[in-house]
Amino acid sequence: MYELLYRRVLQHIPAETAHRLAFAAIRFAGAVPGLGAGMRRVLGPADPVLRVRTLGMDLPGPLGLAAGFDKDAEGVDGLTALGFAYVEVGTVTAQAQPGNPRPRMFRLPADRALVNRMGFNNHGAAAAAERLRRRVEGGRAGSRRRTAYVGVNIGKTKVVPEAEAVGDYVAGARRLAPYADYLVVNVSSPNTPGLRDLQAVERLRPLLAAVRQTLDEAPQAAQAGHAGAPEPRRVPLLVKIAPDLSDADVDAVADLALDLGLDGIIATNTTIARDGLRTDAAEVTELGAGGLSGAPLKERALEVIRRLHARVGDRLVLVAVGGIENADDAWERIRAGATLVQAYTGFIYGGPAWPRKVHREIARRARAAGYSSVAEAVGTSGRPGPGAHR
């Protein structure tokens, strides 16, 4: 049904307009008393084999929604009602900003891909923090049971000079830390001038160190209280990297993350590459600059996860994103070393039933391989599952 709707209607609407309409429907579903909860019972991951305990969270499944879809923390309840185990909101910047001029999002249906140059359009850290605060405090008061874990992805405000980037990230982190189940430093979007330069280790070190210190000092740090616990806890910190980094730079970021005591790495963001696309090259060129996401990213994103796991083992939590279209892709990333997986473009093309289908099929693969938990399969690529010896 969704594929028919997509072919007949959605693909004829500008991509950003279609996103706004779909997201409005999702927010509505999450806001209607009883509707979101009912959807969650039907669509949410319930198989115990899917449960993952990581980063201080007890998740019902490994599949979450990547940053970029819900930039302002407006639709967390509706998105988890569709079956995502957690939602990463953002990218949020310390200051509100409109993003780049439209049009700034484009479909490549032949490649099951998107190109975007959104430019971190969002209402700013204060607005996102206030929305998250209302969710948290409403859940504590019992007026609205909290139903989801929420990661917060932060980036640099465009008008802030690169020399002042550390202070800008710190300002965003300070605002959002009390309401984040984990926080991600995004230095890998291609749509903010100079941002990717911050991935160089000599520039990344002081940035990550400052954000880590801010999280440790934040008042009421991470009292998001998903389980109702009021005590502060250490907010997990991750960094999100680009697929366009060289292998040597991937290794350097991994070593830095270990050295600074980070909790994990998210791999990968969108790519500026345009190699091997089925879409006509002239058409792609006409679309202009932006980050490419979706199926074309699959091979490189998988390579990066494998390389990171070989470098850090289980000392860091690896989160895989990029080109995950189905359960096979997700399962391959898990076995390559990812504890969690995320999707964006696969969800756009797959439709509202996609998260439930992927979780269900991951559970089926885990049981068929003889695992009692998806967590047991992390990093087992190249080794037979326990069921192979029965």
TrEMBL record:
Primary localization class, coarse: membrane
InterPro entries, per database record: Aldolase_TIM, DHO_dehydrogenase, Dihydroorotate_DH_2, Dihydroorotate_DH_cat, Dihydroorotate_DH_CS
CDD domains the UniProt entry points to: DHOD_2_like
Any single biological process term in GO: 'de novo' pyrimidine nucleobase biosynthetic process
EC number: 1.3.5.2
Active-site feature positions: 189 (nucleophile)
GO cellular component: cytoplasm; plasma membrane
UniProt topology in membrane: Peripheral membrane protein
Textual note on the cofactor: Binds 1 FMN per subunit.
Residues that bind substrate: 71, 116-120, 186, 191, 269-270
GO molecular function, one term: dihydroorotate dehydrogenase (quinone) activity
Domain Dihydroorotate dehydrogenase catalytic: 50-364
EC category: oxidoreductase
Record keyword Transmembrane present: no
Subcellular localization, as worded in the UniProt entry: Cell membrane
CC cofactor: FMN
Pathway info: Pyrimidine metabolism; UMP biosynthesis via de novo pathway; orotate from (S)-dihydroorotate (quinone route): step 1/1
Family: Belongs to the dihydroorotate dehydrogenase family. Type 2 subfamily.
Function: Catalyzes the conversion of dihydroorotate to orotate with quinone as electron acceptor.
Name of the protein this chain belongs to: Dihydroorotate dehydrogenase (quinone)
Organism listed in the record: Actinopolymorpha rutila
